[in-house]
Amino acid sequence: MNDRRPTRPMIEVEGLxxxxxxxxxLRGIDLAIAAGEVVCVIGPSGSGKSTLLRCINHLEVAxxxxxxxxxxxxxxxxxxxxxxxHSNRAIAAVRAQLxxxxxxxxxxxxxxAMGNIIEAPVxxxxxxxxxxxxxxxxxxxxxxxxxKEDAYPEELSGGQQQRVAIARALAMDPxxxxxDEVTSALDPELVAEVLATMRDLAAQGMTMLVVTHxxxxxxxxxxxxxxxxxxxxxxxxxxxxxxxxxxxRRTRDFLRTVLER
Length: 261
Description:
Distance between the termini: 23 Å
Radius of gyration: 18 Å
Shape: globular
Helix content: 25-40%
Number of strands: 11
Number of helices: 9
Structural class: alpha/beta
């Protein structure tokens, strides 16, 4: 288990609601993640886990609620249904604080690993190319791919592509990382190398909100585990309590199903 002591809130979510048509996907989510915490979100498919991450990063717009990043208001509903932030520039500023890694790697196929990593720092942050390349080499070494900077995505395994995607997110020097089922598209033998990279990030103190089906990772690395079902947080507690003595029947039923597979 990750035993770092939580400090100030890094991500705060209050009363978040999201609909897709008649489907009420998020039903009043309240969540606070402290700097340095690793919080894993588990639950059945369709429970709203990925939508929660996408709303935090403004890839989806919630209809109601507030989001703060490192104490700063990043999103809020106002009177007459007006949303904040109001501009694409403000949304980009929020996203720059949050690194997001997806289930599917979303690398640019026409760019090398190096090219993928430096693209945003150079064109979004305006960082000089030589400094961006230096940082990219450090990150490729960190994720175990120092010899792959000139490789194109099609020349990399799925696990290697996902590690490049993690390095690309880290290149923006985010305050927190959002990870959405980052191992679920990988062959089983490639999962371990990506989880090892995530464990290293956790050990370095990176704040992480991780949607995952990897129960051993959640049990061993997270500070807290959140169980979601039907758009609500049903239960949240330490890994010891969630996996050892969950309070809610829905949590027990879910864990019984996934752990018996």
